[in-house]
Write a structure and sequence with these properties.
Helix content is 71%, strand content 0%. By secondary structure, it is mainly alpha-helical. Helix 2 (27-48) packs antiparallel against helix 3. The radius of gyration is 31 Å and the shape is elongated. It starts with 6 loop residues before the first helix and ends with a helix.
C-alpha cells in the first residue's frame, strides 16, 4: 500500500521557499544537507516501512517538513534527530489514518466452491501421498525423478547434474515411474 505524500507540507515548502528567496537564501545549505545525509536517512525510513517506495515517499515528506522549519532550527548539529523525529511522526500519522474495516463474526465464512476446480484438501492429500511414494524410491531414482519432474529439468540437464549418461537417466526414470504406478498408496489417489 502506498501512502500519499503530505501535500500540505510540500505546498508549504514551496511557498516558504518563495518568500524566503527574497529575505535569506537557505536553500543551498538545506540542499547540501540532503545530499550528504540522504542515504543514512533513507535507511532509517526503510526501517519504518516494508516497501522501499513508501520509504522514499516518507523521507520526502519528512524532508519537506524539515525544509519548512529550516529557519527555526537553531542547532543544525541536531538536524538528523529532527528529521528522524519527523520521519517517525509522519509514519505514525500515516499508520493512524489508515482505516481497516474489520467485522466480528461467529464463524469464518467458507469460500464458494468453483465448479471444475479440485478440492484443495484432496490436492494436498495427493501431494503428500506422492512425496511419501517418492521417498520409498532408491536415492538415485528419487534424485532423477525430482530433477526431471519437480525441478523441470530436461533429460540432458538431469544427466549433467548427476554426472551420468542420458540413457541412464531415461532408464532410471522409467523404472522409478513404474514403481510409482504400482505403489498402493497412490492407487487410492487415482
Amino acid at each position: 500500500m502506498t501512502t500519499p505524500v503530505c501535500t500540505s507540507a510540500s505546498d508549504a515548502a514551496v511557498s516558504a521557499r518563495q518568500t524566503r528567496a527574497h529575505t535569506r537564501p537557505s536553500y543551498p545549505s538545506f540542499a547540501s544537507y540532503v545530499r550528504a545525509r540522504q542515504p543514512v536517512l533513507l535507511r532509517t525510513a526503510r526501517s519504518l516501512t516494508a516497501n522501499p517506495s513508501d520509504a522514499e515517499d516518507l523521507l520526502q515528506t519528512a524532508l519537506a517538513k524539515t525544509y519548512v522549519a529550516w529557519e527555526r532550527i537553531e542547532d543544525h548539529r541536531a538536524l538528523d534527530g529532527y528529521v528522524r523525529r519527523a520521519l517517525l511522526n509522519t509514519r505514525t500519522s500515516q499508520w493512524r489514518k489508515r482505516r481497516v474495516d474489520e467485522f466480528v463474526c461467529d464463524e469464518m465464512p467458507e469460500p464458494e466452491p468453483v465448479p471444475g476446480e479440485d478440492d484443495p484438501a484432496e490436492r494436498q492429500a495427493l501431494h503428500d501421498a506422492m512425496w511419501r511414494a517418492i521417498t520409498k524410491l532408491p536415492a538415485r531414482q528419487r534424485a532423477m525423478v525430482v530433477l526431471r519432474y519437480y525441478e523441470d529439468l530436461s533429460e540432458v540437464q538431469t544427466a549433467e547434474v548427476l554426472g551420468v549418461s542420458v540413457g541412464t537417466v531415461k532408464s532410471a526414470v522409467s523404472r522409478a515411474l513404474g514403481k510409482l504406478r504400482e505403489d498402493p498408496e497412490l492407487d487410492l489417489a487415482r
